């Protein structure tokens, strides 16, 4: 999530999950062995229900400091602090102290600023940034190093290891680029000094994430003064926002706490848990094996909820691809996915299942979800083709 500005402007705005923690969220110090179901059984529940939005506070497109010459918080930020303390049942002094320590980050504001020129959408270019040799090679290595944790996460949540590895690869290149922005500064900047005054809902969302960060800090689950992440406030290998960390993250290595920066095990199970809680179905593929109808564009809604029935698509001219036969996906809602490439004046159409739309909860972009799926498919193909350890042993070793 720390690519050059134009790339970031194209992919970051939809990247955030915005669920908020409850006033007294259940502690993150839990071992998933004791609390989570096996795949196919009842779904796990988020640790905390979403709170009502924090309504107080406001944003302006400026670089004005958060604290005035008199040492007092800006009135809008002071109002925010009071509502956060009330809604989250936190000491007001704790909230205001952290907010007084927040600093405007000009780089975060610049990277979130709207582009002055329209960026032409290119599926081929976007896909090429992620389904490429470096991520594939490092993805194979990450998979081998964490094969046991990935298998365990799949057994618990039903999310394939290939999908988990692909998400971590797309997000941070397997932990190589987790970001060095102080999250407190990034969220305060985007919550109170959002650079685009036409998007007040975006600043509102960042203020809620700031409230989640302050809540986690008070609970001792992270240190808001030192926590680092992307310019948008996302943290760790899987780039979880504070609200997602509070609700969906899991303790994968059983050490009693969740560390999305330093523990690949925690990151792996957290990605799997997030997807399962957002509708992932173990029995379904990401894309249905379907040849779309010739008039595919008229079936595109552009939404994040599948609404089509297989019978409708079939009647409209869709056909099973190749040797595909009747499968479980046919009993569930589907969605037509359009992958537009404006420079090439082309569109690729695919039929997404519930699992495709689960991926769009991680990032609302069709390009993102499709790239994750394609990278996962390539990683799985490589891993299946690679000789096993037993095959690599010499006759003496055998």
Topology (SSEs and partners):
Blueprint: H1 5-11, H2 32-35, H3 75-88, H4 92-101, H5 106-112, H6 123-130, H7 133-145, H8 147-157, H9 161-172, E1 181-182, H10 183-192, H11 200-218, E2 228-229, H12 242-248, H13 264-277, E3 290-291, H14 310-315, E4 319-320, E5 335-341, E6 346-352, H15 354-362, H16 366-385, H17 389-392
Antiparallel strand pairs: 1-2, 3-4, 5-6
Helix pairs in contact: 3-4, 6-16, 7-9, 7-16, 8-13, 9-13, 9-16, 10-11, 15-16
Question: Gap between N and C termini, in Å?
Answer: 44 Å
Radius of gyration: 22 Å
CATH class of the domain at 5-117 and 179-258: Mainly Alpha
What's the number of extended β-strand segments?
A: 6
If you consult CATH, what is the topology of the domain at 5-117 and 179-258?
Answer: Helicase, Ruva Protein, domain 3
Strand order, largest beta sheet: 1-2
Q: Which regions are unreliable across 5 or more consecutive residues at pLDDT < 50?
A: 1-35, 389-398
CATH architecture of the domain at 5-117 and 179-258: Orthogonal Bundle
Q: Strand pairing plus helix content: what structural class? A: mainly alpha
How helical, in percent, are the residues?
40-55%
Helix-strand string? HHHHHHHHHEHHEHHEHEEEHHH
CATH superfamily of the domain at 5-117 and 179-258: Bacterial muramidase
Largest sheet: 2 strands, antiparallel
Strand portion, in percent? 5-15%
Q: Can you tell me the overall shape?
A: globular
Average pLDDT, all residues: 87
Secondary structure tally, helices:
17
């Amino acid at each position: 999530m720390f690519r050059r500005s134009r790339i970031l402007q194209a992919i970051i705005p939809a990247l955030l999950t915005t669920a908020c923690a409850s006033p007294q969220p259940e502690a993150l110090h839990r071992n998933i062995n004791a609390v989570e179901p096996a795949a196919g059984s009842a779904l796990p529940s988020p640790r905390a229900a979403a709170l009502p939005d924090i309504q107080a506070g406001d944003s302006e497109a400026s670089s004005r400091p958060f604290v005035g010459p008199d040492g007092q918080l800006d009135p809008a930020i002071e109002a925010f602090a009071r509502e956060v303390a009330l809604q989250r049942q936190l000491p007001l002094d704790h909230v205001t102290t952290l907010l007084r320590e927040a600093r405007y980050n000009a780089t975060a504001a610049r990277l979130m600023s709207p582009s002055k020129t329209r960026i032409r959408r290119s599926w081929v270019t976007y896909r090429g940034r992620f389904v490429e040799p470096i991520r594939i090679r490092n993805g194979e290595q990450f998979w081998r190093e964490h094969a046991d944790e990935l298998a365990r996460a799949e057994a618990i949540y039903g999310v394939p290891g290939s999908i988990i590895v692909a998400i971590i690869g797309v997000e941070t290149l397997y932990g190589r680029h987790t970001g060095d922005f102080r999250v407190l500064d990034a969220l305060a900047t985007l919550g109170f000094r959002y650079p685009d005054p036409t998007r007040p809902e975006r600043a509102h969302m960042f203020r809620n994430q700031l409230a989640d960060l302050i809540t986690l800090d008070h609970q001792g689950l992270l240190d808001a003064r030192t926590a680092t992440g992307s310019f948008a406030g996302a943290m760790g290998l899987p780039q979880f926002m504070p609200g997602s960390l509070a609700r969906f993250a899991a303790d994968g290595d059983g050490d009693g706490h969740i560390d999305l920066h330093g523990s690949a095990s925690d990151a792996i199970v957290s990605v799997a848990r997030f997807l399962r809680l957002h509708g992932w179905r173990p029995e379904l593929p990401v894309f249905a094996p379907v040849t779309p109808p010739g008039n595919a564009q008229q079936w595109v809604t552009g939404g994040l909820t599948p609404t089509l029935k297989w019978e409708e698509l079939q009647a409209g001219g869709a056909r099973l691809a190749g040797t595909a036969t009747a499968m479980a996906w046919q009993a569930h809602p589907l969605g037509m996915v359009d992958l537009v490439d404006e420079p090439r004046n082309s569109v690729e159409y695919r039929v997404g299942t519930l699992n495709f739309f689960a991926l769009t909860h991680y990032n609302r972009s069709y390009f993102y979800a499709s790239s994750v799926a394609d990278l996962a498919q390539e990683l799985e193909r490589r891993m299946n083709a690679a000789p096993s350890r037993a095959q690599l042993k010499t006759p003496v070793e055998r």
